[in-house]
C-alpha cells in the first residue's frame, strides 16, 4: 500500500527527526562529560577547571549568626576548600561511579596548596589521575599533586567503588 505524505506531514517528520537527533547528541555529551554551565566548561572529568564560586559561611548553632571558620588575620583556612561528591551512572559491571569536585572558595583570593584529605583506605576500580588525587597512606590523600589551587579553581575526578568514601579536609598550606 503506497502512502503519499502531504507537505505538512513531511515538515513534521523532518522536524521530529531533527529534534530526536539533537536529543541524542545532548545525551551523548552529557554521558561523556562534555558540558557547559555559564562560564564553567568541563571537557574531561579528570581535569582541573575553573569557574565562578561563592564562599558560603557556616551557621553558628548557638547564636544563629553566620560566621566564617577562620581566625582573625588568617589568609585562609581548611574551610576555604569545599568538597562535593555524588553518584553518577554505574560501570557496566554495576560498580557505582562517584564524581568529586574539590573547590577553593577563598573569599580573599588566596592560593591553597598541599591540600590533604581524610579519605580512609581510598581505592577505585576506575583509574584516578594521581596528579589530581592520590592516597599517600591510610586516611591521607593529596589533591592536585600538592600544587597550589588558586581561588575559584576546581579539581574534578571520578572514582568507582561499591560505596562512597567520606572525604574531608585534614590540612592545607596557605600561600
Automatic annotation (TrEMBL):
Keyword Amino-acid biosynthesis applies: no
Keywords annotated in UniProt: Membrane, Signal, Transmembrane, Transmembrane helix
Biological process terms in GO annotation: cell fate determination
Pfam families associated with the record: TPD1_C (PF24068)
Top-level division of the source organism's lineage: Eukaryota
Record has NAD as a keyword: no
Listed transmembrane segments: 12-31
InterPro entries: TPD1
Protein name: Protein TAPETUM DETERMINANT 1
Upper lineage: Eukaryota, Viridiplantae, Streptophyta, Embryophyta, Tracheophyta
Amino acid at each position: 500500500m503506497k502512502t503519499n505524505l502531504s507537505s505538512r506531514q513531511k515538515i513534521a517528520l523532518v522536524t521530529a527527526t531533527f529534534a530526536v537527533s539533537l536529543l541524542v547528541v545532548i545525551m551523548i555529551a552529557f554521558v561523556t562529560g562534555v558540558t557547559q554551565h555559564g562560564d564553567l566548561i568541563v571537557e574531561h572529568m579528570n581535569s582541573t577547571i575553573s569557574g565562578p564560586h561563592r564562599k558560603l559561611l557556616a551557621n553558628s548553632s548557638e547564636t544563629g549568626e553566620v560566621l566564617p571558620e577562620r581566625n582573625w588575620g588568617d589568609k585562609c583556612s581548611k574551610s576555604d576548600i569545599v568538597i562535593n561528591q555524588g553518584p553518577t551512572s554505574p560501570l557496566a559491571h554495576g560498580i557505582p561511579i562517584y564524581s568529586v569536585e574539590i573547590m577553593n572558595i577563598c573569599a580573599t583570593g588566596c592560593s591553597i596548596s598541599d591540600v590533604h584529605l581524610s579519605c580512609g583506605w581510598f581505592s577505585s576500580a576506575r583509574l584516578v589521575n594521581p596528579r589530581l588525587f592520590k592516597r599517600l597512606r591510610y586516611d591521607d590523600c593529596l589533591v592536585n599533586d600538592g600544587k597550589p589551587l588558586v581561588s575559584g579553581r576546581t579539581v574534578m575526578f571520578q572514582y568507582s567503588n561499591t560505596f562512597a568514601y567520606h572525604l574531608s579536609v585534614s590540612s592545607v598550606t596557605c600561600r
